[in-house]
Specification:
The structure holds two protein chains of two kinds. By secondary structure, chain A is α+β, with helices and mostly antiparallel strands. Chain A has two domains: 473 residues, MetI-like fold, CATH 1.10.3720; 82 residues, Beta Barrel (Thrombin, subunit H), CATH 2.40.10.500. Chain A has 21 helices and 26 strands. In chain A, strands 1-26-25-24 form a four-stranded antiparallel β-sheet, with no helix packed on it. In chain A, strands 2-3-4-5 form a four-stranded antiparallel β-sheet, with no helix packed on it. A four-stranded antiparallel β-sheet of chain A has the order 6-7-8-9, with no helix packed on it. In chain A, a hairpin with a 4-residue loop joins strand 17 and strand 18. Chain A is elongated and about 100 Å long. Chain B has two domains: 152 residues, D-Maltodextrin-Binding Protein, domain 2, CATH 3.40.190.10; 150 residues, Periplasmic binding protein-like II (D-Maltodextrin-Binding Protein, domain 2). In chain B, strands 1, 2, 3, 4, 5, 6, 7, 8, 9, 10 and 11 form an eleven-stranded mixed β-sheet that branches. In chain B, strand 1, helix 2 and strand 2 form a beta-alpha-beta unit. In chain B, helix 7 packs across helix 12. The longest helix of chain B has 25 residues. Classes of the chains: A alpha+beta, B alpha/beta. Chains A and B meet through helix 6, helix 7, helix 11, helix 13 and helix 18 of A and helix 1, strand 1, helix 2, strand 2 and helix 3 of B.
Chain lengths: 791, 342
Amino acid sequence: MIEFAGSALLEPWSTTVARTFAWIIPVALVSGILGVFISRNTRPLRGSWWWLVMAAMIPPFAMFHAVWSRCATDAFLARPVCLAASLVVWGTALSALISSIWSRSTDADDLTALDGATWFDIVRLEFVRRAPAACAGAAAVALVLFGESTAFDLAQVRTVAFELKALAALGVSLVALIQIALPLLIALMVCSILVGRGMAGWTLRTSNIASMQGKWTLSTKRAIGPIILGLIPVISILCARNVWEDAAGLRAEHLRGIGWSISAALCASIVLGSFAAVATTMMAQSIANRRGRWILIVLCSSIVLFLAAVPAAILSSVLLHTADLLFETTATSGWWLVVLGHSLRAAAVVWCIALFAAVQWDRSASDAAALRGGATSFAIALWPTALRVFLSSALIVFVLSFGDVSVAGALEPAGADRLATRLIDALHYQRPGPIAVLLPLVGCAAVIAATVMAIISKRVRTLHPCIMVMLFLPLILAGCAESGSEHSVGSPLSHPRVIGAPGRANGLFEYPRALAVDPRNGDIIVIDKTARVQRFHSDGSLDQIWMMPRFEQGKPTGVSVAPDGRVFVADTHEHRVLIFSSDGKELFSLGQSGTGPGEFIYPTDIAFRSDGRILVSEYGGNDRIQEFTHDGKWIRSFGERGDPGPAESIDGIARFDRPQSILLDEQANRIYVADACHHRIVELTGEGEFVRSIGEAGVDQGQLWYPYGVDRLDEHTLVVCEFGANRLQRLDLKTAKVGPAWGRSGSAVGELAAPWSVAVWDGHIIVCDGRNGRVQVVSVPSSEAMTGSDP
Amino acid sequence: MHCLVLGLVLVGCGDDRAQDNETLVVYASADEPVARLIVDAFEKESGIDVTLRLDSEASKTVGLAERLRAQRAHPEADVFWSSECFVMDALAVEGILTPLPATVVESWPRKLVSADDRWAGFAGRVRVVVWNPQKIEETLVPTSLEGCSSREKNVTLAIADVRFGTTRGHFSALAALMSDESWSNWCQQLAQSNPMLLPGGNAAVVDAVASGEAMVGLTDSDDAIAAQAQGRSIAWRPIGLGLDAECGPHSVFVIPNTVGIIVGARHPDSAAEFAQFLLSSRGESILAQSASANVPLGSDAKNGAVTLGDSICLVDVRTVASAMTRAIETFLARVRDAAGER
């Protein structure tokens, strides 16, 4: 263990301290001043106030990630600029929320003005009057940023909080950590007491400004603009991906996480809100009675400021060890420890709010109350202010606690799944999907918290429809949630082998759709939505990869391997079939866009006759099967777009709606077509004449729902993969019976999400598990098992 | 409306799996999706419910280790699964881990089990060098950690903070092969080449290389793969220590995942079963095929996205751990000296 912390520092401690303050002080000051101007036209629960809540709720590290990922350039300066911008946006929102308390509590607001005054004088008077509010906002921002290093870490800025975390990671003793941090904390405490004392006196003088006549020339109604601008990168992240598609990846853990996060933050906010209200009452009485006011206030200020300035690494470590020493159960695993951590972190901020609410309170009311009676009358007179302080403090604490990762991340018990922790992990591992899911949930939490406050204060009777949508968004998304295997119908595939995973690296997939097996050796060929053609050996190891030459209009949805090994790709959105050699060399192209013979709209699949003739299925208006010679000359087409019915049996022409895949059985002289949007399998003769339709529309076992893939299990049995029902089903050709079903909806191994294609090879069923970004391989069940059990 | 809001608030209050006496509690410092793949598969196959406690990038594995130390007298966790081996070994030395049952380790390669049987390694991450193909030719990219100090002058190198995680292990492993003087000289040479030492971790290294702020960087395979999965412009290859010692000049440096059972675990049998699941072909296969593409080390599971043609270097953890403090302090001192000279 390292006993001397200095030997474990990357740079002189003074450099780190200077850098930390060089960042925090300007950000805090700018945020404080801007916050004051914004709060002038901000009223709680109205209009722009909701924007402030949203912006303040987004953790600083998430704000930086949004700005950096959307605005980054190659210039080295971009990262510090993005950090500064994101911290100012977040800090301004927080400061404005705090300042908005005073915008209603100061009676001189609407009365104070100067007749014939210069613009400079008005600004000066505005600043003097609002300086306490600006200082409170700036102090809150500074205190939070001092203890929170995550945003700075992402921006590669080394701060005091990070260095202390690094020392803890290196095994520096707790005593050494406190030794190195203590001088800094004492200096901070002394500074804040001096500044606070000065501001309090300043506050007392300015609160006695007499009313003056005149009018304001400053208009700050548009001051909320920078906040909204700052939220644009965050909103753009959500718009960059299909949020509703990603919402399907919402897991039960995320919903549990939002509940857990809200619960812990609300508990802390109620505790500290109550503390703030009581503190306000006691301090207001003390100030009004001019008795011993400063000694107690200074002492309490020192304690809360010290707690706020203690870096998270030390605070969480002390809390864990203390809890374990004091209690004999697994108390360290309790949620109460998280609430305590939140409370200690945010105590200084609510102390600032309470202190200045106390000194801003109208003394004339206290005098009137004192004339009528003692402390009881005083308390009754102070009640509206105390309630306002409680609500405002509670909201601020909720905002700060919800996004905290440094303290709560170390204290949360098993199974907690706090949103902020999951969000920082998603940012670290560059997973835009979870980010797109978690950020809206943060916004919902903000709305929920603010609405709770509104209800308690009875300030609103009805809510704006947009707010109602945000309030119910978690419930809406819950309907899309992949809640895990315990909520899905059916059984998962038994002991599947998984090939690949979501991603763009070699061997990984981004929504794979097309799959085929090389009949010569069992190699598996997969094409995904990055237009990569990947060839795997049958054991799942990657062999080869090549790109489609063109994919601007879309990616292929079908692929087949000819008996000679050539790879035929249904290049769907390029309206052609592209043929490659077995090692990926482009050979020739078949067809072009159109509705005539030999032309395609959206080709989907290819099959081969033993003499080399090629069958191609397509949809998009053509909805037919076309036949070509081995060298691409058009022979004929069969089937047409239409509705199934008796006419098919009469004229022998199948009516298709999206024939998604075809299976040729030359021995039986049959062609089977997965007629997806008619939810059936169509059986044709080898010449293309309609024989029968198998299956009916539905999601129950025995029915079909968007069958996309079909292949042969044995002489009399097919396997069908259903894109719409997320399962496989057996189809008996002798009895025309569909069932049993295998697999179920979900993202766990053995579950399926949007399976696009299926193949059977060497006793295995290989299914392309599209939305799960993988291929799953299961053994074909025995004949006995096929009567009703899982593979 | 009051009831509705209260209902929403109480959504998260109902999960008391951690208090369920039959639930196995697993502390894992692995990536969340990977950990959930393993846990889901284990739950399905064993029927044992698992409550997972993950670490946060904000605390970088230290958080869970610190929790385990604080809970020594009353542990919440039954099993600790770490994504690296040095923290695990430190916990073993401190007596927080109990020896793994013989049935768990007997069929596992001995080289992957600690001398006191208190932890075992499996499917590892590979240390890799990443570079930006648009900024630098592959021939200029260092081929080993040892070679990083003698790279071309204009090749900017990004490294994660050496006081954390796999970077600390990588550097310490090299230091363990050198004398004090050689190590000091190597650190001095590297420090004078002005590498970027990033506080954001291995992911920040990849970000710096992809954005062009650095030309090359040292990171882990899962971070490189994640960046490529996002379409970022980087290339990578495994990197070893470079010294012609027991690992050989062409070997690659692998840091295994490790698993240990906590002393005083409330569910020792279930914990042993979970450990056995990780130390199996099935467990390694899931990890190999996952997005983290860990390299199987103890079983015949097939590789995923990371395929290694070179030999794998597995250092003696205890030896490296004992050299760690000296190694890091020396490196930091040389960095401070070099900064002072500039």
